[in-house]
Design a protein that fits this description.
Layout (H helix, E strand, L loop, with lengths): L6 H8 L13 E3 L4 E4 L4 E7 L1 H11 L10 E4 L2 E7 L2 E6 L16 E5 L4 E7 L3 H6 L15 E7 L2 E9 L2 E7 L3 H16 L1
Antiparallel strand pairs: 1-2, 2-8, 3-6, 3-7, 4-5, 5-6, 8-11, 9-10, 10-11
């Protein structure tokens, strides 16, 4: 057996390195009214900030954080979703390696990278809201939950963050450990919406 630190040991460990697979890899469901896809890997930050911290983090992002219930703000592929008076979920849906956590802040903020804790699903189609409402009690009518609105809510018994990206398009964010349960509810809801 090769000793640690030798060229032979280094070469042997290359064979042991595994490729990372995502919890949602290959997940897809579609019918005539709903398409359900696993979202691509994304950068995510759970942000808590008081008044002064809001300005500091807004400057870091390059756009103002939303400060009203359900509001969202975006610049390019970076989205800020208001979840509570001092809480946001920040997403970069195109760059899973985006630097969303500032290296220094001269204000009281808590910016925690939760990229590997959460996963996302994308629902599109005329039946997307009905499919979600099969397990989500939130009123998803356009009057109550218009496009570019987000909310923490539940799907069955799982906590989710729901982001309506367009009239007939939603992003569902949930914890990785809930994937089988949430996926099952989303597929069942999509099937019901097609009836």
């Amino acid at each position: 057996m090769a000793r640690v630190g030798t060229k032979a040991a280094t070469a042997a460990t290359k064979d042991l390195i595994a490729a990372r697979t995502f919890a949602t890899a290959g997940m897809r469901y579609a019918n005539a009214t709903v398409t359900l896809d696993a979202a691509a890997p994304a950068a995510r930050v759970s942000l808590r900030a008081a008044d002064r911290g809001i300005g500091v983090y807004s400057r870091h992002l390059g756009f103002e954080l939303p400060t009203t219930p359900g509001a969202t703000a975006s610049k390019g592929s970076t989205h800020a979703l208001w979840l509570g008076p001092d809480e946001w979920l920040i997403l970069d849906t195109k760059n899973a390696n985006a630097k969303l956590v500032p290296t220094r802040a001269n204000a009281a903020i808590s910016a925690t990278d939760v990229s590997h804790r959460n996963v996302g699903f994308i629902l599109t189609g005329a039946g997307a809201a009905d499919g979600l409402n099969a397990a989500c009690p939130r009123d998803l009518s356009l009057e109550a939950f218009p496009a570019k609105t987000a909310s923490r809510t539940i799907l069955g018994k799982a906590e989710i963050v729901l982001y309506r990206t367009a009239r007939d398009a939603f992003r569902v964010e949930c914890w990785r450990s809930y994937v089988p349960y949430v996926w099952g509810l989303l597929v069942n809801g999509a099937q019901d919406a097609h009836l």
